[in-house]
Amino acid sequence: MQKLRKVFYGWWMVLASAIMNLLSGASFFYGFTVFFNPIRETFNWTAAQTSLAFTFQRLESGLMGPVAGLLVDRLGPRKLMMLGWSAFGLGFILMSHISSLWSFYVNFIIVSIGLSFGSFIVVNTAIAHWFVKKRSRALTMTYVGFGLSGMLVPLVSLAVQEFGWRSTLFWLGVIMWATGILFSLVFRHKPEPYGYLPDGELRQAGDAAPEKTTQQNASSSAGLTVRETLRTPAFWFLSIASIFQFMGIAALSVHVVPYLESVGIEHTLAALVVSGITVCSLIGRLGFGLLGDYQNKKYLITICVILQTAGLLAFAFINADMKWLIILFLLTYGPGYGGPIPLRPGLQADYFGTKSYGTVMGLMSLISMVGGLVSPVFAGWIYDTTGSYQTAWFWLAGLTFPAVILYLLASPPRSAEKS
Predict the structure, then answer these.
(1) Is the dihedral of CA 247, 33, 126, 287 positive or negative?
(2) For the chain, which domains are there?
């Protein structure tokens, strides 16, 4: 009788990252939109002033991305993640005591710094090292946490209504401290020093060390250097494509609840739409993400961007008399938004390898931040000056579509085609 194999350690890292993504998504990436109006109304700030915090967050994320990528390539993920989640929780606690616009900005940046070192680039780098043939599946499971996090947004909204935004932020910070630091301890840098091979492959008989694996059991650190990657057209096509792709995403994530309320949608339903986005994004994350191990990721991402563009157009026409458009919006934007989330990190590893994975991802995020830098403030400014968000969504839908062309132009480097 064949002996049962124990669960590959890389899957425990996937589980831990999914739980951490669930928490950060519910509290910040998707959940913070329910804090937007209560905080703004407390201090009588304009939508553009409040949205500027998200611009600072995108700027910080872009600037710190290469730093986080370089550090995780050299130091590994665990220490960075413990530091990051400590700052993440601290930022929420401090934000619960703000009394001015600048203190709001400062504490928002602290939260953002925490996530730069505790999520995305650091987690993606660790997972990319531990998986090769099953990389797309592993990244898909990692980002299921974000997809499920939207289901918790109505609970965050309820807490804000029942206990106030200050108390809710404080206790969210405590929860981030307690859980984030604990799950950070699960992470390891590369599998070989711990006696594993990527994907949990068994070592071939006669192999004295992981370095002697065959090409099938590939090393977790193969690929192009940073300098070689920067010389490829694919790097620039993918990076610039993400600028356009993230414009609509960044603005919508900030203004989804304020916009829906402005067109007569009640607050409870608006919060449920946030949940709907994340739940429907699971269709994209799971469907397109799992296909990524079998089909060309570039074409799958292209389909997703087309769906995202269609969703933004549907979003622009939602109002109290046309609530049915919410369903059309969710079924197009949700999968279109969710699909690239596991596919892009997998495509990066396919094209450039994992030798300098964190650094390369950090540089790509530095370029892509341009898309998310101005769009939240742009949407807020449109509302402040016209009293409506609709024009903003038309513009952002049009600015998203060029990403389709750029993704199609991004062919793999010659070294990747030969491998």
Answers:
(1) negative
(2) 9-202+217-418 (1.20.1250.20)
